[in-house]
Specification:
Elements: H1 2-13, H2 19-26, H3 29-32, H4 34-40, H5 42-50, H6 52-61, H7 65-73, H8 77-94, H9 97-106, H10 110-116, H11 129-138, H12 142-156, H13 163-177, H14 181-192
Helix pairs in contact: 7-8, 7-13, 8-10, 8-12, 8-13, 11-12, 13-14
């Protein structure tokens, strides 16, 4: 009897040390094992769902060029869409088709903005010396024609020629910030000859 008591007492004393062994025998191990798995599992899931969120919202909002124009330049929505559309039309006349296609792909709603641009009015004499000079130059230079058209379009929108480089700068900056730095530089350089 003393021997049986000594074995039982020895087994009970070593029970905490052999917890893994006893748990595996009696199924107690399944109660403690899920805790680390549960604690480790959400971390990758949370990281996976958090990481794409900024790019998803960035794609959906397209960094919102028109609000960027209205806020940074103090223009209204009609001026923002018509002015940027005019800038894009000028860029289209001065760029290779594939370059311009890349820009319109990078700016959500580019086609809509271009449709919002005022129709260019043909200028015929009587507009002052500077305007007459621009009209003459536009017959010989695509850059001068694009510049003259931009001035006319911006005037129709109630803005001066001084706003053209500002729109170009915001458009270029927008492209750079949305992950297309080369397109931003291209837009800026192509239109620099028209301003």
């Amino acid at each position: 009897m003393k021997k049986l008591f000594a074995i039982t007492l020895s087994a009970l004393i070593s029970l905490p040390a052999q917890a893994g062994f006893w748990d595996s025998l009696f199924g107690g191990g399944s109660k403690t094992e899920p805790t680390p798995t549960t604690n480790n599992a959400p971390t990758p899931v949370v990281n996976n769902t958090v990481t794409p969120a900024p790019s998803t919202s960035r794609i959906e909002t397209g960094l919102q060029l028109l609000p960027l124009l209205t806020q940074s330049l103090g223009v209204d929505g009609t001026q923002a869409s018509g002015g940027m559309g005019s800038v894009l039309q000028a860029a289209q006349t001065l760029m290779a088709n594939n370059e311009f296609a890349a820009i319109t792909k990078a700016i959500p709603g580019a086609e809509t903005m271009m449709k919002a641009a005022p129709v260019v009015k043909e200028v015929t004499g009587g507009g002052g010396m500077m305007q007459n000079a621009m009209t003459m130059a536009s017959k010989y230079s695509p850059e001068a024609k694009a510049g003259a058209d931009l001035v006319s379009q911006f005037k129709t929108l109630g803005m001066g020629a001084d706003m053209i480089p500002k729109f170009t700068e915001v458009g270029s900056s927008y492209l750079q910030r949305s992950g297309h730095p080369e397109l931003g530089m291209l837009l800026s350089s192509v239109l620099s000859g028209a301003m």
